[in-house]
Amino acid sequence: MPFNVLVAVSLLYVGLLFGVAFVAERRARGGSAVWLRTPLVYTLSLSIYCTAWTFYGAVGYAARSGLEFLTIYLGPTLVFVGWWWILRKLVRIGRAQRVTSIADLISSRYGKSNFLGVVVTVMAVLAATPYIALQLQSVTLSFGVFASDTPEGWALPDQGATALWVAAGLALFTILFGTRNLDANERHHGIVMAIAVEAVVKLIALLAVGIFVVWGVAGGVADILARIGASPIADWPLKPGRWAGLTFVSAAAILTLPRMFQVMVVENADERHVATASWAFPLYLMLMSLFVVPIAVVGLGIMPLGSNPDLFVLTIPLSQGAGKLALLAFLGGFSSATSMVIVAAIALSTMVSNHIVTPLWLALRVGSARAPGDVRGLVLMSRRLSIGAVLALGYTYYHLSGGSAALAAIGLISFVGVAQVLPAMVGGIYWRGATHIGAALGLITGFSIWLYCLFLPSFGEGGLISARVMADGLFGIYWLRPHALFGITGLDPLLHALLWSMLLNTAAFLIGSLASFPGPMERLQGVAFVNIFDQTSGPGGWARSAAEAEDLLSMSQRILGPEEAQRFFQAQAAAQGKLGYLPDPTPDFIARLERQLAGSVGAATAHAMISQLSGGATVSVQDLIAVAGEAQQIKEYSAQLEAKSEELARTARALREANDKLTGLSVQKDAFLSQISHELRTPMTSIRAFSEILMETDLPDEMRSKYAGIIHDETRRLTRLLDDLLDLSVLENRKVQLTIGVANLHDIITKAVTSASNTRPERVFVVQRDASAEHMPVFTDTDRLLQVFINLVSNARKYCDAERAVLRIEVKKRGGFVEVDFIDNGAGIPKTSQALIFEKFARLTDTSHAGGAGLGLAICREIMANLGGSIDYIPGQGGAAFRVRLPLKRSG
Amino acid sequence: MHGKHVVLIEDEPNIAEAIRFILARVGARVTHLATGADAVAVLAAEPPDVLVLDLMLPDRSGLDILADLRAEPALAALPVLMLTARGQSRDREAAERAGANAFLAKPFANSDLLSAVRALTMGGA
Amino acid sequence: MPHTQPLFLARRSYRRRRMMDAVRLLPGFGAVLIMLPLLWRTAETPEPDTAEGLVYLFAVWVLLIAAAFALSRGLAPALLVPEEPVSPEAGEPGENSGEAG
Q1: What ipTM goes with this model?
Q2: B93, containing H or E segment
Q3: A70 falls within a domain
C-alpha cells in the first residue's frame, strides 16, 4: 500500500468528518435537530469509551492476560443495565442544574465551591494527558506498521512529526466545532454526529477484521475454539483480585471520565435516550469485544514471534495480503483515537476555562463585573486556548515518554485516577450529609495516593520517583514504599494503588462529611441533588435579592451575547406578565438566570457573578435556612407559603405599577393642558410684544428687521408645534395615509444623520455605523421612517451628555424584522422615566431650550405603530438606547 | 422710572429681549438673568427696585425663588412681578400665596407690563 | 363497568413498579454472574478453560442486554416530565415515542 494512498485516504476520511460535522451544525441551526438527536446517535456517541486502547490494545491485552480484558467492558455494562440507579439521576441533575462538566457537577453539589472544581479539573487533566498521548501514539504506530510493511519501503518521515500533525489537526477540528456556542446546553451537534459516524466505522472495521480472521484465516467457530484451547492463553489465568478490581474501576471510570460525562450527561438531549442506551451500549461493547480473543489467538499463532500483539488488528490482514481490510482497520483505529481526543479536549477545556481561567480573571477584576468588558469573548478564547493546551500537553507527554509503554497499562492508570471522583459523586447524589470538606479531603487523599503509588512510578525506575524511594519508601520510611503502602506486599501495583486510594478516599470523604458542618448553599444544593426526583423546581437559593434587573441584564449580555440575553429577559418578563425587557428580580427569576449563566460559565462562577451584583443575597439564604430549620416538612410548607405570598406580592406589584402608570398619565394629561398653554403662549408673548414695539416706535432699520425676524421665527415655532399636534392626532387615530415605497436602509440612515446635524451643530459628535449591515431594501413609508430616525439622532445630539459623544447605529435582521438600534454613550434614561418617555410632552429635563415640545418620541411611537413595527427603549446598554423594529415584508 | 433698577429672570431669550426694550425705553436699568440658580445671591448683593420673575424656569420654579427671597430679610419687602405663560387661576393664587406683589399672564400688552412695573416702583418708593 | 377501568390502571402501574424493582436488581444480578468465575478452580484443572469462560461470559452478556432491553421498553415512559403525576394516561404518548426510538 503506497504511503500516498494511505495519506490520501486518511485526508479524505477527515474531510468526510468535517463535512458531516458541518452539515449537522447547519441542520441544527436550521431547526431540524430532531433527527440529529435520536437514541441511536446518543448510544453511538457513548462509543468514545472505546478508544484506540480498545481497538488495538484489547487484542494485545488478551494475548497477554487472557480474558481479563473483558472486565473493562463488563464494568460499564453493569453500570448501563443498572441505569435506573445512577445514570438516570445524573442525567436529570445535569439537565436541571445545567451542569457543564464533571468538575462542575462536584462544584455545584458542594455549595458551588470552586475549590472542588479546581481539584477535579487538575485531576482530570493529569489523568487524561497520558491517555491523549496514548491515542497519538496509536495513530503514529499504525502509520508505522504500513511503513515497515511496504515492499517499496517508503520511510515514514518522522514519527514525532506525524503525532504533531495529528495533534494540530485535532485541535483545529475541536476548536472549529467545539467552541461555536458558548452555552454548554446548546449542544455540539456537529461533533456528536461526527463521533457517531466514527463509532460506526470502528465497529464495522473491528467486526470485519474479526470475521476475516474467524472465517478467512481460521476455519470457522469450531476451529477458533479449538485454536483457543491450543494457544498460550488456553488456561485462563484468572487473578481474583484483578478480576473484581478492574470490573469495579472500569464501572467507576465510565461515570467519572470527563469525556464520558460530556457525551452521557452534558450532550444528552432527552432522558429517554438513556433507557435505550441501557441495552444498546452494552450491545455495542459486546460486539467490539466479540472477536478480540480470536484475533489474539490467531495472531499469536501465525505472526512471527516477538511481533507486537497490540497491532495484530493491522498486521494480520497485512500479512495475509488483505490490504483493503488493513486500510479499513487503520481507519477504525484512527476513528477510535480521534473521537476520544476531540471529546476529551472539549470536556477538559470547558473545565479549565470555567474553573480556572474565568474565576481567575474575575478575581483579578474584583467588583468590576459591571464595567464594560467582553466576558463572552474571554470565555470563548480561554476555551480555545485550553483545547490547544490540552492537546499540547498530550503531545508533550507522548514526546517525552517516547511512546514505549504497553497501551493497556496507561489506560488503566488513567482509570484509577479518574475513579477517585466516584465517592464524592455518588455520595453527593445519594447522601445529603456529604459536605465539601469531606469531598475535598476524599478527593485530595485519593488523588495523592494515586499520584504517589501509581502515576509517578509509571515513569519507570529513576523517572520521577528515585529507585531509592521505590525500594526504601519516602524519607526512608519503610511502610511508605509506593508499591507496598503500610507494609502490604504481594499485590500487583495497580490493585495496590486502587485498593488504598479508594479505601482512604472513601474513608476521608465519610469522616470529613460526618465531622464538618455544611454551609447553607451546600445544604440547598444537597437537597436539590439528592431529592432531584421529588422536586418540580429546585430551591433556587435567592431568597430576596437586591439585584437590579437592569444590572443583571447588562451583565448577562456580556456572557450570553446581547440577543440571547435580551430574548431571555423578554421571555421572563412576559412570563411575569410584564412588557419590555426588565422582569422583576424575583428569586425564581434570579435562580433561572443563574442556571442560564451556569450553562455558559459553570455554576460557581455564575453564582459568584450574581452574588457580586445582588450583594448580601447569600445572607438571605442563611436567613431562609434559619427560618426553615431542619425539618423538611416545615421547610416545604414555608416554601409553598413563600411561593404563594411571592405570587401575591408580584400581582400587587404589577397592579401598583399599572396604577402608578395611570396616575402618572393622568398627571401628565393635566400637565398636558398647561403645557400646551405654555408652549403656545411663549412664542405668542414674543410676537405680541415685538409687534407692539414695531407699531409704536420709530426704530432704526437694523433693529426693525431684527425684531421682525424674531416674530418670524416665533411664528414658525408656533406652526411647528401645531403641525406636530395635528400629526400626532392623525397618527393616533390611524387615519394617516402611508406612501409605501422601497428604499435602501443605508440611504435613509445617511439622510437622517445629515438632517440631524443642524441640531446643536457646534457639538463634536461621532456616529459609528456599519455600512455593510445597513445595505438592505425596506418596504415602508420612507419619509415617515426618516422622520423617526432624524428624531432619534437629534435626541442623541441634544441629550447625550458624554464629553465625547458617540452614537452607535446597529442594524440586524431578526425573525421577519429588521432592528435598528441607536445607542449613545451618555448617562441614559433613569429607570423611573423609561416608562414615560414615549408619552406626550414627557420632556425629561423641563427645558424649552431643547426646541421641541416633547412630542418627538410620542410621534415616533405612533409612526412605528402605523408602519407595523415598534420603537422601544432598551435598558442596560451603557447609554440611552432605542430599538426601532420594522417588518421586512410589507404587511399588505 | 428713570434710574430705577429692574432685575428680570426669564429663560426665553426673545421675551427677555422684549421686556428689556420696553423698560429701557422709559429709562430703567435692566439686569437679565436666564436662570434662577444664583438669583438670590445676585439680588442680595444689589437689591433692585423691582424684580420681574418668570414662573416656569428650566432649573427651578419661580415660586421657589420667591419663597427664598422672602426668607431673606434684606429682600423680604422687594416688590415682585410674576409672569406666567400658563395663565391659569391656580398659578395666580400660588403666586400670591408665595408673596408676589403683582401677576401678569403671557402674552401681555406692553403697556400693561409697563404700568405694572411702574406701580410697583411707586409703591416701593 | 366503571370498576374495571381503575382496576386495569392499577394493574398497569403495579407492573411498572415491579419493573423498576427489576431494573434496580439487574446490576446486582449481573455482578454476581460476572464474579462467578472467581469460584471456579481454573488453571488447576488439566483441561483448558479459556474457551469455556469466553462462551460463558458472552452468554451472561447477552442475557443482561436482553433483560435491559425488555425493561427499558417498559420504563422509558416513566421518564416523562416529572411535573405530571405518574399516571398511565400520561405515560401513553411516551410509550409510543419510546417504541419509535
Answers
A1: 0.92
A2: helix B89-98
A3: yes
